[in-house]
């Protein structure tokens, strides 16, 4: 049994160092206004441009110490000078992470982008990705992240097979344009905005395309992109076995692609996912898995929402690191179902908040990042300074 409230010294040296070096990439779009198709509510002080989004990312990193990278979304984060944006980020201890392409908000893409039967439109979608690769070079980004809204609404609307062929062809051209040290990560989603069929609906389809492309093509698992009841940790385990889990888009869902704070809906699921990661040795920064958030804060304040998300992932990770692997292995080999399950549940039920507070203090951070941020006055500052201009928003 794990002690009821463990301290940092109860972790092995390896586990402690993994916790210390854990890092989570933040989505630039989490800091802008967002909502649903019914209403986008505004929040005072939201960034007006990518520079201000990065300032807010740096705040989350300043208080949590675990979010040193930001994902950009193009064209939402288009700027004239990407070198300057990169420098602005680096001056604040933040690097540019994945570049997300966006071929879902242009009239031309109504019937598809990389799968479109219209060669002019398919060309335009490929060219957008080539532009993203140039942005990766300028910003030092390691991976191009692709999520497609492509699909159909009605049986017979288009040939499912021909669309797969066009997709494979488009992806091959994009992949060939990458530099040797750049990766392509392909995200899947089972429905929405298409309702009959989606061209990359599941991890199997994403994997099939990645395998055809080459070693530097990997799958992105967005935790909100599965049918209810899907065993996500199984997918994590399988993709890790194959060395093809490229990145997570962490968030929570109750119904569809809700994009709520990770760990809010089902913290036990998040723990089970982190348990697979830890048991496969895939937590280390050089493991090749990019732990990202893909969230929108429609009601809550954005920066505190991201702080809560980062600490939720940290808590799930600390619990996974507390699992007694040796005892678990023994119980599993002995076929002791309840003992094995109890070892996991015991770790999950452990309060790791004091341990994480201790970790932060050992790194010169405040023990409670949320409290420290709220007391810093930053929210008042941006509310009074960020007036005028156009508030950034999902889709703007
Ligand atoms: C699609 O639902 C998605 O998960 C993709 O990652 C997009 O890039 C992102 O959401 C936009 O919020
Ligand atoms: Mn996503």
TrEMBL record:
Looking up Pfam families in the UniProt record yields: AP_endonuc_2 (PF01261)
Any idea which UniProt keywords this protein has? Answer: Isomerase, Manganese, Metal-binding
Entries under SUPFAM superfamilies matching the protein: Xylose isomerase-like
- Which BP terms does GO give this entry? L-lyxose metabolic process; rhamnose catabolic process
Annotated Xylose isomerase-like TIM barrel domain residues = 63-256
Q: Which GO terms describe its molecular function?
A: L-rhamnose isomerase activity; metal ion binding
| InterPro entries listed in its UniProt record | L-rhamnose_isomerase (IPR050337), Rhamnose_iso-rel (IPR013457), Xyl_isomerase-like_sf (IPR036237), Xyl_isomerase-like_TIM-brl (IPR013022)
State if Isomerase is listed as a keyword. Answer: yes
Supply the name of the protein: Rhai grampos: l-rhamnose isomerase
Q: Per the UniProt entry, what species is this protein from, by scientific name? A: Actinomyces glycerinitolerans
